[in-house]
Structures are given as C-alpha cells and as structure tokens.
Design brief:
Shape: globular
CATH class: Alpha Beta
CATH superfamily: NAD(P)-binding Rossmann-like Domain
Strand content: 15-25%
Number of domains: 1
CATH architecture: 3-Layer(aba) Sandwich
CATH topology: Rossmann fold
Order of helices and strands: EHEEHEHEHEEHHEHEH
Number of helices: 8
Helix content: 40-55%
Number of strands: 9
Largest sheet: 7 strands, parallel
Radius of gyration: 17 Å
C-alpha cells in the first residue's frame, strides 16, 4: 500500500489538473488545489480549494507545508508561436514563484511538467520550459521533471493523423532517436506518470527526468 502524500497542485483547474486530482484523491492522497476565486467551483471533488495566486511566491507559500509534494501544472493552454509573451508572463513567472515558495517553506519534492527537448519548433516555449528546469535544478529541492511532447486526449486528438508518419520515421536510423524523444503520449499515460512521481519521491536534492518512453511506461507501472 502506497503511503498517502500531501500534495499541493497549482494549475488545478487546467487540462491536466482537473484530471489528475481525482486520481490522486482516489488513491488516498490529501490534495489541496491552489485556485483563483473565479475558478474555485471547478476544483475537483475531494480536494481542498485554496484561493491564491500561482504567479506570486508569497501566495503559493501560504498554501504550502514542508511535507508537501508540489505538483506544478500552470501553463498557457494550446501553446503556439504566437503566445511567446504568455509563456514568459505565465509559464515562467509561475515556475519562478513556485520554486521560490518551495525553497522558503522547505518543500521536499517538486513535480514539474516541462517539454521534450531539443525539438525543431516552438522555440519560445522550449526556452521558457528549459529555464523552468534550470530554476528547479539550482533550487536544491528534489524534483521530478516530465518531458512530454504532445499529449493526446479530449480536445487534443488531431496528431493521431501523424501516427503513420511516426511509424515510418521510426524505421529510419537517423530519425529514430528524435521520433522517440518527440513521440506522442496519452493523457492516461501522463496521469500515471504524475501519480507515480508523487508516490515515489526522489532522494534529497535529486533531479529525475522522465522522457517520452518513461511516461509511456508509467501506465503499466502504476499499481
């Protein structure tokens, strides 16, 4: 039986937050959700809603406890090259605030959803997520960094059309590594990877990086 964990989720009412919180609650974890007042009603049942600002370190810190795992899911929805400013104002500012709050409160573990890298597109998005990873690495806080490329799920299904292209490119030795790194994962695999990360904290100061193949394997590993 996995010991229950105390988890604070930022981005709790976003695409991944509203899906991972019920899974964590069902597995016996004590979940608190940082949310804006306007989104309070969207926090999934079983989680304690805490009104705050995920872009402000002091606000996050008031919601944190030293024994917490901080699951950071704040991010600009439907990333595109046109949203470069939002990546800085929201994605980067939120992870900067989260790291500062985690250090101030002595949190033991950060789980951060980054992005597969290197990659040939979405440069602004990749740069911001890489900077988020750097901030976490330099914080001294143990962390698990997940690096998906594209997550298939409700409202995010168009890349299924690319599966034949992925299959063909996988047969070409020069493309094989890139295809694996930039492969598609399902929302079920992402949820399993996040839950596994919460339930298996790394050693103090350790940074774990889960790439696409690791995320895909998480669904089978989850018990």
């Amino acid at each position: 039986m996995t010991p229950s964990r105390d988890v604070l989720v930022t981005g709790a009412t976003g695409y991944m937050g509203i899906r991972v919180i019920p899974t964590l609650v069902a597995r016996g974890h004590r979940v608190r959700a940082l949310t804006r007042e306007a989104s309070r009603g969207r926090v999934p049942a079983g989680a304690e809603a805490i009104v705050g600002n995920a872009l402000d370190a002091a606000s996050i810190a008031t919601a944190l406890r030293p024994e917490d795992t901080l699951l950071h899911l704040v991010g600009t929805p439907h990333p595109s090259p046109a949203k470069a400013k939002e990546f800085v104002d929201v994605d980067l500012q939120s992870v900067r605030a989260a790291v500062e709050a985690a250090r101030a409160t002595g949190v033991s573990h950060i789980v951060y959803v980054s992005v597969a890298q290197p990659a040939p597109m979405m440069r602004a998005f990749l740069e911001v997520r890489a900077e988020g990873e750097r901030l976490i690495r330099e914080s001294g806080v143990a962390a698990t960094i997940l690096r998906p490329w594209y997550v298939l799920g409700p409202g995010h299904r168009w890349p299924y059309a690319l599966l034949p292209l992925y299959a063909a490119m996988r047969l070409v030795p020069g493309f094989r590594d890139g295809v694996e790194r930039l492969g598609l994962v399902t929302i079920r695999q992402m949820l399993a990877a996040m839950v596994n990360a919460v339930e298996s904290s790394p050693r103090a100061g350790e940074i774990r990086v889960l790439a696409v193949p690791d995320i895909r394997a998480s669904e089978k590993a989850l018990r």
